[in-house]
Amino acid sequence: MIVTLSALFLIGSTQKPQQAQELWMAPGVKLSPLTFKGPFIRSGDGKILSVYNKTVKISDDGLTWVVRSAWKMDEMKPSQDKGLVVTKDGTLVSVFLDYNSKKYGWDKNGHRPQPGNILKCYTVRSTDNGKTWSTPNPIFTNGYCGQVRSVIQTANGRLVAMLQNLDECVARQVTFAMYSDDDGKTWRKGAEIDIGGTGLTDGILESSVIETEPNKILMIGRTSRDELWQARSSNGGETWTDIKGMGIPASSSPPSILKLQDNTILLVYNQVRSEDGSPPVTRSGENSAMVASWFREEASLRYSKDGGRSWSKPKMFARLPGGQLAYITLFEVSPGLVWAFSGVSAANMEITVSDFVK
């Protein structure tokens, strides 16, 4: 199927909207009627909830939505990419960045971040299904956290949010968990995952996390090594083991992972190059020590039925020539039906899982 996208939705971008583009979708994929982005969750009362810009959107069926004002944040500019989770007792917790706190500079001569870079991370809580929210609570304020995309609750009740920091000392991105054992009221920082490198997008960053089995979690992150990397934790993100490349060729773009209701794990990402073999767009220099693929015109899917120990072959499910299918949020709106919404284009898609997972 091919549809025309009239404009691109660019998170945090000052660029003018790009020209209309043609989105190709594989059988089993179609365009969603929704025009806004996620993340999405099921709230404690079973409704679908999204925190989008400065509003909370709530729906029974995903078709009609009630819009409410979000928490008071007159002095904040919240990131669209954020973590959103509902706890076992029904508390909603959102983890987000405040772009009004952003201070960034790069020393091109020294090839390292300038001192004093800041991008702060906050959380808010709601105990009444999104009607009212707590005052934003800072959980990471002494570094530059460029993204937060994933937060989960494990079987023992711990909240685990994946953050990152552009570390001035090592001049690269390191990833770590912030974890909470009291439904998001207070948070502690876990050990850092550092795989080396030098540059703004070198190291490991923009990660997603799932619970593979009770109290065992899997993190998958972006690198500039043309490969996805993983790490595992059996103590709720306090420490990490099995830190390694996954053997899955990928561009420098964030992966998204989702555990379905039948326990199948979906991995959505950008392959290192087009399926037709064309050379990809690459970057290095300020971004990374190595030349890395930045190919984002095609979105591909793999799945695992054994907790992420092995993965299916990739299946490309969408192509947007000249555009980007990246920063994708995933949500299983009903058993076997997944929303896959690109954060940097107007491609809001619905995937019928049975057409891809056998």
Could you describe the 3D structure shown?
By secondary structure, this protein is an all-beta fold. The chain has one domain: Neuraminidase (6 Propeller), CATH 2.120.10.10. It has no helices and 30 strands. It has strands at residues 2-5, 21-25, 29-31, 40-42, 48-52, 55-59, 66-69, 83-86, 92-103, 106-107, 112-113, 118-126, 137-140, 151-153, 159-167, 172-180, 188-189, 205-213, 216-222, 227-233, 241-249, 256-259, 265-269, 282-283, 292-293, 298-304, 315-319, 328-334, 337-342, 348-352. A hairpin with a 5-residue loop joins β22 and β23.
Structural class: mainly beta
According to CATH, what is the topology?
Answer: Neuraminidase
Beta-strand percentage?
Answer: 35-45%
CATH class: Mainly Beta
How many separate domains make up the residues? 1
Strand count:
30
Tally of DSSP helical segments: 0
Main pleated-sheet profile = 6 strands, antiparallel
Stretches with pLDDT under 50, minimum 5 residues: 8-17
Question: Percentage of helical residues?
Answer: under 10%
- Please state how the strands of the largest beta sheet are arranged side by side: 1-2-27-26-23-22
Radius of gyration: 19 Å
Summarize the structure.
The chain has a single domain (about 35-310), classed as 6 Propeller (Neuraminidase), CATH 2.120.10. Helices cover about 0% and strands about 45% of the residues.
Topology:
Layout: E1 2-5, E2 21-25, E3 29-31, E4 40-42, E5 48-52, E6 55-59, E7 66-69, E8 83-86, E9 92-103, E10 106-107, E11 112-113, E12 118-126, E13 137-140, E14 151-153, E15 159-167, E16 172-180, E17 188-189, E18 205-213, E19 216-222, E20 227-233, E21 241-249, E22 256-259, E23 265-269, E24 282-283, E25 292-293, E26 298-304, E27 315-319, E28 328-334, E29 337-342, E30 348-352
Antiparallel strand pairs: 1-2, 2-27, 3-30, 4-5, 5-6, 6-7, 8-9, 9-12, 10-11, 12-13, 14-15, 15-16, 16-17, 18-19, 19-20, 20-21, 22-23, 23-26, 24-25, 26-27, 28-29, 29-30
